[in-house]
Amino acid sequence: MNIRAVETTQDRAAAERQQRVDLAACYRLVALYGWDDLVFTHISGRVPGPEHHFLINPYGMLFSEITASSLVKVDLQGRKVDDSPYDVNPAGFTIHSAVHAAREDAMCVLHTHSVNGVSVSAQEGGVLPLSQHSIVVLASLAYHDYEGVALVDDEKPRLVHDLGDKRYMMLRNHGLLTVGRTVAEAFVAMYMFETTCMIQVRAQSGGGPLRRIGAPILEGAQAQWDAVTRGTGGGLAWPALLRRLERTDRSYRH
Question: What is the pLDDT of residues 22-71, one digit of tens each?
C-alpha cells in the first residue's frame, strides 16, 4: 500500500472517530435538554467517505447512555457494516436513510418526539411567526403528513419530496426533524425548532390574542441568522455546548 493510501485511510479513520464523538455528544445533549423519548427517536451521522455509511443509535439504549463506540455503522440498506451486538430501530432507519440518500449535505439528521414539538405538529397552522426563534425556522421549513409508524420504504419518496432542500421539517402528528451539514448544525437547528414550539405552546396557553411577526421581517430571517452565527451554522455554539457536557459527564467519548 502506498503512503498516500495509508494517509487517506488514517485521515478517514480520524474523521469517523470525530463524527462518532460529535454524534455521541449530540445524543447526550438531547437527553440533557429533555428532548429524548426513552429509546424511540434517532440521530444519525454520515461517515466521511464514498460508501454512504452512517452511524445511528443502538436500539434499546437511552440517549444518556450512548457513547462514541456504541454507535452502529450501517449502509443505506440497513446492513451493519461493522460487528455490533446491537440492533437498529427499523423506523429510525427508514426515515434517516431516506434523507441521507437524497441529500449530499445531510451529514447529520436529528429527529425528536418532544412534547412541545408533537403538540405544534398536531396544530393545523403548524409553526406560527410568534418569536425571534420562529423566524429562523420559518426561513427553511417543510411539512410531511403522518403516514403511521415509518416502517416501509414506500414512504421514502414522499418524505424526501416534502423535505426538498429545507433544514427543518415538521412531521405532522409525529415530531420534529432537522438536517445539518455537521452534527453541530443539526443540534443548534433543533434547539431553535424546539424553542420555537415551546414558546408557541406557552403563548397560546395564555388565551389572549397573539401578535404575529410581519412578512418583511420573515423574508430577511435567513440573512439575519447567518449574520448572528457568522455563517458557521451551529459551529459558534458547539464548543460551548461541549464544555457544558464535559462538566457533567465525559463518558460519551468512550
Answer: 999 999 999 999 999 999 999 999 998 888 899 999 999 999 999 999 99
Count other C-beta atoms under 10 Å from residue 113's C-beta: 17
Largest Cα–Cα distance in the chain? 70
The structural domain count of the chain equals: 1
In 97-227, DSSP assigns E strands to 108-112, 141-144, 168-171, 175-180
Asked whether the predicted pLDDT for residue 175 surpasses 70, the reply is yes
Bridge partner residues of 45 (DSSP): 55, 108
> Among candidates 130, 141, 151, 146, which has minimal Cα distance to 213?
130
How many beta carbons lie within 10 A of that of residue 75, not counting itself? 14
Q: What's the Rg (C-alpha) of the chain?
A: 18
List Cβ neighbours of 51 (8 Å cut-off, separation of 6 or more): 75, 81
Place of cell 420559518: 138
Q: What is the pLDDT of residues 112-161, one digit of tens each?
A: 999 999 999 999 999 999 999 999 999 999 999 999 887 778 899 999 99
Q: What is the CATH number of the domain that holds 196?
A: 3.40.225.10
